Amino acid sequence: MAIGSFMGRVFTVSHTKIFTPSNLKGSTGSDWATHEVAGGKARSEWVGPKLKSYTFDLLLRAQDGVPPRSTLDYFQRMAESSAVDWFVVGGVPLSPYPFKITDISETWDAVLQGGVLVECKVSLTIEEYL
To answer: CB 1: neighbour CB atoms within 10 A?
Structure first.
């Protein structure tokens, strides 16, 4: 069953594959400027909305039908390129704008003899692209 998608990869759960985001956290807000006033309190001016950003983890495990090394390499290439895509969860984009990967980090949890990566956790930070 498809849960969502990002960067051409479909988040899914089935009897042969588990590939889902976890620890999804988002943030947004407003940008404000402060103008000093001689002899008085500073004045605030609303500048506009901030770009939405999200962080989430992907657990890449060979036993779950997800090739860890090639999936990690794929997201690293996307982070180092100018790639953007809509982040979709439950069939609904989380923004009317696509997202770019601004940061990626990984933890290699299980490596077999010969350097075969069988399990790793990838943490992504994404931000709206306008």
So the answer is: 6
- How far is 103 from 53, CA to CA, in rounded Å? 11
Burial tier of 60 (Cβ tally within 10 Å: 0-12, 13-18, 19+) = buried
Going by C-alpha positions, the residue among 76, 121, 129 that lies closest to residue 100 is 129
pLDDT tens over the chain, length 130 residues: 789 999 999 999 999 999 999 999 999 999 999 999 999 999 999 999 999 999 999 999 999 999 999 999 999 999 999 999 999 999 999 999 999 999 999 999 998 988 899 999 999 999 999 9
59 contacts 121 by C-beta, under 8 angstroms: yes
Give me the sign of the Cα torsion angle 17, 19, 20, 22. positive
Global pTM exceeds 0.70 = yes
Distances (CA, A) of 77 to 31, 52, 54, 94: 31, 22, 19, 23
